[in-house]
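Continuing the series of single-chain predictions for the mutant panel. This is the parent chain; the variants come on the following pages.
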Amino acid sequence: MFHRFVRTHPLVAYFSFAYAFSWLMCLPWLAVGPVAFPVVFFIGGMGPCVAAIAVTSLLEGRAGVRKLLAGAWRWRVGLRWWALALLGFPLLAFTAILAGHWLTGEPLAWKPPGSPSGHLPLTMLVLGIPLLALLEEIGWRGYAWPALLKRHRFLMASAILGTLWACWHLPLFLVKGMSHEGLPFIPYLGMAIGISIWLGWLYCHTQSILLAAVFHASLNYSGLLPGSQSLPALATLGGLGLVLTVALVCVSQRSGARMLTHRRILPESGVEQD
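Parent structure:
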């Protein structure tokens, strides 16, 4: 019965598995306290990847899993895409921070990234964040995004994935001391949808999970910018700025306007379909 459900509703099965795996990892926070944070955070972040591999293995076997993971090593995509992945969001975030500083007068103070148990360990900061970004993107962009594009147009697929991605982070809003604590969720949701538009556009052009992970990691590292943790308006400014920037970038491309409004693009083939 379970196998039949996965075959009939693969996307529902995928998101249910990803949520269940990651959210269950939040239980140790309640059981043993903040000391469990680094291990729990890392294992919980593996949910999207574990779910993608599990569902793909059930439906397509080892060959399907190998195909899924192939994009995680695709690095020959052109320098302009690497530049966009590495610098696109940090530049936008810093612009939003400066705007927020100008509007609110708050200082651009920097403080080290924290966790419920204190500062993040150096290994987590240097190695854990990029690796978690890759593990997430194997699920979000490697599995969920192509599956959504087979059923929905580009903007609708982006909105669905962005919403589910944002909601997957909800436990981080509830744990005291986490980076998401105190963030207004609605602006955060808008930013997640905007980022999904950007990441979807990037993936459709490069077919690279690795590049999506680089962009994802650069997004996470943007939280280290001076002022990023002290401006409540950053999420709102970043979200609005991101949506506008993505729209301008996409429309400026030869196929951008059609991709955003009238056609679907299947990442497997790069072919536009009505």
